[in-house]
Amino acid sequence: MQKRARLIYNPTSGHEVMKRSVADILDILEQAGYEASAFQTTPEEASAQKEATRAAKADFDLIVAAGGDGTINEVVNGIAGLEKRPMMAVIPAGTTNDYARALKIPRDNPVEAARVILKNQTLKMDIGRANDNYFMNIAGGGLLTELTYEVPSDFKSIFGYLAYVVKGAEMLPQIKPIKMHLEYDEGTYDGEASLFLLGLTNSVGGFEQIAPDAQLNDGNFSLIVVKTANMAELVHLIALVIKGGKHVNDPRVIYTKTSKLVARPGDDDVKMMINLDGEYGGDAPMTFTNLQQHIEMYVNKEDIPDHAITSEIPTQQSSEALFVKEVETISEEDIDGDGKIG
User: Fold this and answer.
1) At 170, is the secondary structure helix, strand, or coil?
2) Which is nearest to 227 in space by CA: 266, 258, 281, 261?
3) Domain locations in the chain?
4) Is the pLDDT of residue 201 over 60?
5) Which of 16, 27, 220, 308 has most Cβ atoms within 10 angstroms of its Cβ?
6) Residue 204 CA, distance from chain mean position
7) Pairing of strands 138-141, 195-199
8) CB proximity list for 216: less than 8 A, separation 6 or greater
């Protein structure tokens, strides 16, 4: 039976460049051996998520998410909770395209991004779970993360990443720390912070050095807690990020690896909004869990640094095959009279 692929695309992403690229992308999917079809998202809430769930339950082999990080997040949420999950591919056409940057997928041409599928290079990627929701790149809490809610969508479409820079500079004087209680693998933090971030990749908000040693599939988040809210100190920390990720050794920052995190406000009367992949994801308290190697993705693997990838966990089938192979290599001389292997 021929494999089937479903392209789920946001027609408004990237100045509507996706609309003009659909036919070429479907042709590439056909070249890759898939019977291909497309779904254009609608203004209905969770349109991409619902279609991803439907396609997965209809036994599609591949879902291609085309759009910004928000569209990709919806597709991930549509399949991450299922027992049987199709493979995924990503075609970026949004503002920052952090996820595509981490996967080394071309970000300025949707057709070239689709051609990555023809390389047939895949990686089983870690996915984050936040209570009942999922995220593929970043989760965060604190006042600094709230600037993404303050940038109007039309402003983002016109000015792109510059919109975040302008709004961030405008908000910096207003940033104040809040009391947080954070429980992670190596300990607990009770104190004030301007934000915490949980990263699954090294790319956050266009920066590739915020989590410089992040691995894409090792089962761990990169946890960053910024304890200061002083504007001059925040600017200095940003400079350290740009200088090669030197912020990770700064005493004003907690930087560690963790497979889980429990986050809640330090005061009952304080509201802590949670950001999941750039969008509002609910309020703390919230429990975050790393689902190691949960979704297999097409990636530009040859361009991803070796240190960003760990060994893949064998599937149950491959583990059983390895056991059978080992048994087959045992000769009769290795077995004694009592049937034990000597």
Assistant:
1) helix
2) 266
3) 3-121+313-317, 138-292
4) yes
5) 220
6) 10
7) antiparallel
8) 102, 103, 123, 125, 126, 200, 201, 304, 308, 309
Cα separation values, 167 from 51, 80, 145, 163, 311, Å: 33, 32, 12, 6, 40
CATH of domain 3-121+313-317: 3.40.50.10330
Residue 16 · residue 157 · CB < 8 Å: no
The answer for residues whose C-beta is within 8 angstroms of residue 315's C-beta and 6 or more apart is: none
**Residue 165 predicted with pLDDT over 80:** no
The candidate with the shortest Cα–Cα distance to 43, out of 137, 153, 160, is 153
By annotation, the residues acting in catalysis are: 279
* Phi, psi (degrees; rounded to nearest 5) at 139: -130, 150
Cα–Cα dist 251/248, whole Å: 8
310 is written with which tokens? 């760990």
Q: Which residue, chain included where needed, has tokens 């057709």?
A: 111
Token pair 């009770």: residue: 190
Token output for 338: 């009592």
- From the candidate CATH numbers 2.40.100.10, 2.30.110.10, 3.90.850.10, 2.60.200.40, the one assigned to the domain spanning 138-292: 2.60.200.40
Half-sphere exposure of 180 (CA within 13 A, CB side): 31
* Helices and strands (H, E) in the chain, number of each type: 10, 16
Instruction: Please state the pTM of the whole predicted model.
Output: 0.84
Tokens describing residue 105: 């997928």
Does residue 265 sit in helix, strand or coil? Answer: strand
Which residues are 188's β-sheet partners? 183
pLDDT tens track for 116-164? 999 999 999 999 999 999 999 999 998 756 555 454 554 444 444 444 4
Convert the pLDDT of each residue in 259-282 to its tens digit: 999 999 998 888 899 999 988 899
Taking CA atoms, 125 is separated from 40, 47, 58, 171, 193, in Å, by 25, 23, 23, 34, 30
At residue 210, the 3 state secondary structure works out as coil
Q: pLDDT tens-digit profile of 95-107? A: 778 899 999 999 9
